[in-house]
Structure to design on (820 residues):
């Protein structure tokens, strides 16, 4: 047969409801972009600082000291030394007692969020989400057939007053939200950090409405001047806050290592549904060794300096080339700067004009739970080469000027 | 609060249908057994031969040569060099053209099977499964709320005549099976290998009834005297056979690396539903390097000798200590020997009597799709120390004698 029997159409007839909900399109976010461009698009870490040497040293130590344990199954909750190292670290950092029973290891934080969804979500359920938001998580929620209620942000993070109104409406319908999803630190894409007051309000609402705060903390450790306020997990004493952490941004996305940290009764339920025999004990022990020998802390310190310098370079260039067209709130850490365009400028037009100049930026409805894009561009300043920033932002400025000129001649 | 808010009961009220179907019990299979026992229980690889040195060498090569690619996202389908190495290897071994588009990398074969289930299964669907069978896979299928139709085995593998009858009955109900799950090589737990004739019949049935053969091939490369017959994937020219492979048994379970190999239209659909940003490019490239530099082939050769010696040792001891009570078909590879007990001996009683003597063996309803256990014990000969085999089987013989004596005095 030269024609395959299993055409997309024949496969379509067999796929699950979840697969039909999401459709046949493969999400390209995790796929490297082969083009020669100046990219402010992906939330990807700085390349030259990737800690290959430290990883190899930790791998050698682990394979020398504990090869048997590293190369056998490590249990459904994930490798014990990593669970213990995470518990010890966040007991110290968050000031609440975290134990291994609060922690389950995942194959990256996207997998961690997926495990929480598998454990909690049925079609027709409701979750509350910040808007704008990380498209990957919203895509995962969508695959479970749930309704996502969009809660807007401002410079202090999630508008908890709006959240309160939505939760009350939901209760009036006789429903409760399965969780409230947020990225409290250096939000993706908006760059804002939730204030302590908002965090306390959010926690009070989670208690009142008996639900979880699913807090995605991929960027929390990458602050520039001072750490963000305590996590909702910490404020709740390890109860209503369910924190998802990741080593993708602090070590490397290529490891695919993250975790969930939450009430032990929920963590145990996540483990009970898990079918993948746990996340790699080898990689888990390598990371635990980097935590133990101090390499992780030293590396994070270095990263803070690198990303601060990149942000400063971007800000200087924006002031030089783009000032008439944009405004933004300076992020206190993380990877993202969220540019609001001057009224009349279309973010889509600017994106296309920048693309034509070999500069890639993010924008569009995929960042919005209700699909209604506002007039913003997302600039990821993390990945782009430091030396290319000025050139890239200059071209973005040309794109902005071109779109503005087009508008004024219409 | 000393009493946690999120008790198991409060969590239960929020969990998904899938979590309720499976219940709160965490499956312990992937958790190391801390007891000091002689274990014939788990399907775990030999410990002393774990290729720690080869893994470290490959890791050093990868981090030296391609740190950027290894430590960045590698795409939803998984790291390209591993997909290509798998395609090249099985093109050579199976004699059909396998391309990267036939392959998606997973975090172990249990994860691979789970991805296939997520893509194909809705509650109420029907799958055909060999019985006895690997409890982990049946547990995964159960979590999706599907009906599992049990197809018995004999020494030549799945009874395809029974399968044919079941498929016809299902068609008469107006339904079709989403897939037929089998472990054609060195089956877990029964140890049998499906004959070529049965494979051809199975494939003909998959074609006729327009479904997939999900063939779990964790053990195929670990043959003792000659390779098993071609995979159903190969016989089907890469169409109706969907093969799940694993590096757990050929390298290490602690890596959590496996793959699915099937029709590109299905593989693409699996990728479209995937939410975990792909399996670790770092680990994937380490394995690809072990395939490229010949270490994997050399290691598998070594393993064949190790497992053959362990099986011979078990067989010699069975002949010495257990002959009056048991019969079995010699496995041609893999990890498992499936003992049929003499009529009147209860496998549960023998298991308990062996446990009391510090010897762990497998048996029971978890191996059977219909929950009806036959009178068998599963002896995994892979993990137990070569020097402990004789002692372990001697104690098993004592357990058999004790249970037989009890029976005769009743």
């Amino acid at each position: 047969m030269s024609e395959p029997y299993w055409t997309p159409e024949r496969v379509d007839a067999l796929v699950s409801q979840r697969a039909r909900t999401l459709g046949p399109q493969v999400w390209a976010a995790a796929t490297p972009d082969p083009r020669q461009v100046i990219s402010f698009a992906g939330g990807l870490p700085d390349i030259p600082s990737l800690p290959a040497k430290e990883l190899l040293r930790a791998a050698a130590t682990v394979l020398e000291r504990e090869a048997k344990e590293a190369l056998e199954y490590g249990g459904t909750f994930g490798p014990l030394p990593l669970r213990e190292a995470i518990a010890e670290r966040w007991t110290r950092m968050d000031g609440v007692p975290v134990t291994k029973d609060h922690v389950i290891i995942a194959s990256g934080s996207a997998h961690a969020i997926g495990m929480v969804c598998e454990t909690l979500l049925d079609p027709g359920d409701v979750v509350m989400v910040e808007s704008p938001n990380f498209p990957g998580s919203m895509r995962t929620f969508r695959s479970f057939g749930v309704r996502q209620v969009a809660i807007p942000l401002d410079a202090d993070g999630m508008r908890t007053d709006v959240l309160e109104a939505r939760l009350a409406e939901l209760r009036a319908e006789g429903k409760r939200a399965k969780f409230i999803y947020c990225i409290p630190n250096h939000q993706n894409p908006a760059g804002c950090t939730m204030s302590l007051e908002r965090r306390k309000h959010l926690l009070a609402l989670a208690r009142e409405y008996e639900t979880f705060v699913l807090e995605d903390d991929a960027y929390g450790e990458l602050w520039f001047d001072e750490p963000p306020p305590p996590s909702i997990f910490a404020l709740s004493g390890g109860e209503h806050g369910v924190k998802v952490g990741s080593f993708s941004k602090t070590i490397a996305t290529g490891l695919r290592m993250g975790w969930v940290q939450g009430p032990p009764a929920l963590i145990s339920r996540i483990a009970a549904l898990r079918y993948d025999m746990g996340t790699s004990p080898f990689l888990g022990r390598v990371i635990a060794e980097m935590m133990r020998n101090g390499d992780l802390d030293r590396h994070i310190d270095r990263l803070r300096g690198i990303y601060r310098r990149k942000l400063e370079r971007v800000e200087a260039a924006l002031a030089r080339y783009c000032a008439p067209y944009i405004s933004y709130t300076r992020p206190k850490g993380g990877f993202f700067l969220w540019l609001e365009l001057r009224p009349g400028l279309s973010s889509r037009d600017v994106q296309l004009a920048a693309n034509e100049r070999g500069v890639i930026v993010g924008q569009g409805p995929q960042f919005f739970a209700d699909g209604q894009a506002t007039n913003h561009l997302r600039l990821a300043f993390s990945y782009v080469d430091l030396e290319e920033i000025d050139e890239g932002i200059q071209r973005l400025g040309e794109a902005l000027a071109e779109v503005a000129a087009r508008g004024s001649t219409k």
About this structure: The mean pLDDT of chain B is 95. The first strand of chain B starts at residue 38 and ends at 39. Residues 295-321 of chain B form the longest helix (27 residues).
